[in-house]
Amino acid sequence: MNTQRAQEIIASPTMINVTYQGAQIYIQNVDEHTEMARIYTLDEPEKECTVPLHSLSEQ
User: Of 44, 45, 46, 42, which Cα lies nearest the Cα of 19?
Assistant: First the structure.
């Protein structure tokens, strides 16, 4: 996923299906310079992590 699309998903008023390693996730924010995203899975929202944007897939 590219930076622009990740930011569009964050700004969207509707939930867009995005996965990381097969798990459905929510993108909290994106760092354009490092191309990393702060995410958490919908199943475990307390477990936040930072991952490369290229590892996210829109379904």
Answer: 42
